[in-house]
Design goal:
The chain has 13 helices and 15 strands. The chain is an alpha/beta fold. It folds into 2 domains: 237 residues, Aspartate Aminotransferase, domain 2 (3-Layer(aba) Sandwich), CATH 3.40.640.10; 126 residues, Aspartate Aminotransferase, domain 1, CATH 3.90.1150.10. Helix 1 packs antiparallel against helix 8 and helix 5 runs parallel beside helix 6.
Amino acid sequence: MTERIWLSLAHMGGQEQRFIQEAFDTNWVVPLGPNVDGFEKDLESYLGENKHIVALSAGTAAIHLGLIQLGVGPGDEVICQSFTFSASANPIKYLGADPVFVDSEPETWNMSPELLRMAIKDRIAKTGKKPKAIIPVHLYGMPAKMDEIMAIANEHGIPVLEDAAEALGAEFKGQKCGTFGEFACLSFNGNKMITTSGGGALVCSTKEEADFTKHLATQARDNAPHYQHSKVGYNYRLSNICAGIGRGQMMVLQEHVEARRNINLKYRQLLNGIGGVSFQSNPSSDFHSNMWLTCIVVNPAEAGFTREDLRLAMEQENIETRPLWKPMHLQPVFASAPFYGDESRVSENLFDRGLCLPSHPNLTDEDLQRVVDVIKGLAEM
């Protein structure tokens, strides 16, 4: 059998081992340490906008701690993009709050500002209080329409927590994703733009928020000679070993971004002229996706095959692909949550027709050609 082509593999830059070895040599094989501090500083320098970074065990942990600091608790509502991975919404339930899902607009596939405005007004009318937070997602590295979303959020006085887990390196109007809201989450899972094996970070607007995040993430231990706790804490900090991987990855982050953008460009060139196959694309020069994953949409009437036909054909050729995210409002766990959409059913249609193609920097031209040949083979049948 031919070698398997994976969807999104980690890619090492060559310097990661040096930072890990330093941790072993100095016996910093515990949570926290110089690599954690260095990794946070590297991220702050990269993102800019005077943000403060706290490295954590996962992007999910970042959303959880961000929501805590926004005062989310039992009985509250949090507006969340429906077209996303469940980690965007699960922390809302951790806190006893309720998600309110908003559908996407077709240009970026991200939260529709028009439907966001509708949801806010309707929730205030129905519950007598406004939602506690808004969670837009920069899906597959494509920036959401953050100018419109932030304007609506500011108009109603509702804080924004960006889910930028897939969008490190992406920009909207020249500003890095993850720097628009009061908080933002980043992810360094093994399939993301850079990896720490497993890990994430909370992007904070102030040093005070970052300090409190660190406090909560280290079991909320009070400043005392003994173990004393006045708040419920969490074991959410990133380890010094994993942060060492991250420091090495930061040295090649921009190379990773450009590599994925280049892969996306090659797919477009190789698939040019194939009917019924379209790409997630930057709507204008304001948007600069990192193209974390190259995503296509299949129109069966034009292509002559379905998304599922293509997925199964890829698997037959030992190529990993994945359907686009199943919207949260269709997930059994969130069946009772309010959902705001319209007749266009953007996220549902994208889920039905969309597929993520292999997109990692390790892909060779031969790998890309294998993927493209499967699509062309179906188109010619």
